[in-house]
Amino acid sequence: MVTRDRLPPGRMIRFVVGPDRVLIPDLAARLPGRGIWLRPARDVLETARTRGAFARAAHGPVKLPPDLLPMLEDALLRRVADGLGLARRAGQVVFGFSKTREWITGGRAGLIVQAVDGSRDERSRILSGARGLPVLAVMTGERLGAAFGRDHVVHAALAPGALAERLLADGERYAGIAGLAAPMSLGQPGDGLKQAGA
């Protein structure tokens, strides 16, 4: 619609127009109606908003919520937190330095989640030897802790699988909308951290 990008649906954001012509974000892509798909990037969303792209795609007038960006950011962070809670209940995640490190060195981790406000040195130290693993850092330690029923958490590791993939996709969508760097992927020895997809 705006960029003509073709990405997997889970990596984009779907919108639908409600009966009252209000634009509704459909992050789970389950609401009825014709979907309007956008690449999750702040500038793309702003371009679509200011140039009337939503109205063109919907073939008629569309009312945009005035707080669309903050609403999307909050909803995506909630999905990340909900995904962590689901992984916890399924026994597919551990948290804390020791357990996370144990999963990394034991080859059990498929995704590393870190608090954005954690110590940079400690965050780097736990990742030594974690080549090829994506690292998602979009939540504060307090918000990450709340997902685990704790006051504060800096490190977590998820088992490979659908939950880890969904969490990474939601984190990437949040990073795009919030204008943050994409989640990181650990490269080969000596490469250090690389941007995912770089």
UniProtKB/TrEMBL annotation:
Q: Which residues form the YlxR domain?
A: 2-70
Q: Which Gene3D superfamilies match?
A: 3.30.1330.30, YlxR-like
Q: What is the lineage of its organism?
A: Bacteria, Pseudomonadati, Pseudomonadota, Alphaproteobacteria, Acetobacterales
Entry's NCBIfam families? PRK09190.1
For this entry, the protein name equals: RNA-binding protein
Q: Which SUPFAM superfamilies match?
A: L30e-like, YlxR-like
A Pfam cross-reference name: YlxR
